Amino acid sequence: MSNSVGVVIVAAGRGTRMGTAESKQYLLLQGKPIIVHTLEVFQRHKRISEIVLVTGEEDVHRCKQWVQAYKLDKVAAVITGGAQRQHSVRRGLDELNTHWVMVHDGVRPFVQDSEIEACYERAQSAGASVLAVPVKDTIKQVDSEGKVLSTPDRRSLWAIQTPQTFRLSDLLSAYEEAERDGFLGTDDSSLAERSGITVSVVEGSYKNIKITTPEDLDFAEFTVRSRGEEHR
Ligand SMILES: Nc1ccn([C@@H]2O[C@H](COP(=O)(O)OP(=O)(O)OP(=O)(O)O)[C@@H](O)[C@H]2O)c(=O)n1
Ligand SMILES: C[C@](O)(CO)[C@H](O)COP(=O)(O)O
């Protein structure tokens, strides 16, 4: 099928900003690890045929157990990541056999089915897409001494989320180029952009947070609890 879609879910980080002994992707939300909440969103999505989960070496075993226990049968591989997010994504890409790839953070469990669909459709029409929200604050560029340098026009600023969707062959080329040039980016789109791929933004929701610091857990608990109440 020429539009098959695989997902690389990266979960090999240590969560230093969260500061918990347990890596944040394995903390429980209503009794279930955050990473399982994230996997379930893609497991149930009709567009997704294959999932590769990238995790820490010491976590592969328990992740494989969850894949069985939660019947996540789209998970084709659970593999070990690298030192930086970019290295983890690269390893995941090498495992996929689909035409399209979505890269998603394991700690963004609140992405909606409709957002995944919109990202897929935009990538089909534009070539590549990223989910994002317009920034709400005024942003300033500041130098190392704390002096304000400039105030960029907020109307052109977006906070970038995942999923980020590309043709697998395009993203692999972009990753190879970045590796060759020693470029390290904080997202996948930045690698694609520098290799000349046009990336289009899909407006998402402020609820699709990346669970990063302790206050994000309060929001996550609240969100999961309210969903449970909605379904009662
Ligand atoms: N070497 C790495 C680093 C990060 N990630 C993943 O990339 C996503 C986004 O990264 P971030 O939130 O920054 O996670 P951590 O690196 O774990 O957090 P911190 O920077 O606070 O240590 C997370 O799902 C994380 O597990 C990864 O797979 N491999
Ligand atoms: C890819 C990403 O989620 C876009 O917001 C993010 O850049 C990855 O995490 P980090 O906070 O930059 O490490």
UniProtKB/TrEMBL annotation:
Enzyme class: transferase
PROSITE patterns, per database record: ISPD
Catalyzed reaction equations: 2-C-methyl-D-erythritol 4-phosphate + CTP + H(+) = 4-CDP-2-C-methyl-D-erythritol + diphosphate
Domain of life: Bacteria
Pfam families found in the cross-reference section: IspD
InterPro entries: IspD, IspD/TarI, IspD/TarI_cytidylyltransf_bact, ISPD_synthase_CS, Nucleotide-diphossugar_trans
UniProt-annotated site: Positions MEP for the nucleophilic attack, residues: R154, K210
GO-annotated molecular function: 2-C-methyl-D-erythritol 4-phosphate cytidylyltransferase activity
EC number: 2.7.7.60
Transition state stabilizer (site feature) positions: R17, K24
Pathway: Isoprenoid biosynthesis; isopentenyl diphosphate biosynthesis via DXP pathway; isopentenyl diphosphate from 1-deoxy-D-xylulose 5-phosphate: step 2/6
Keywords: Isoprene biosynthesis, Nucleotidyltransferase, Transferase
Function: Catalyzes the formation of 4-diphosphocytidyl-2-C-methyl-D-erythritol from CTP and 2-C-methyl-D-erythritol 4-phosphate (MEP).
Family, similarity comment: Belongs to the IspD/TarI cytidylyltransferase family. IspD subfamily.
Name this polypeptide is given: 2-C-methyl-D-erythritol 4-phosphate cytidylyltransferase
Organism: Paenibacillus rhizoplanae
Name of the gene: ispD
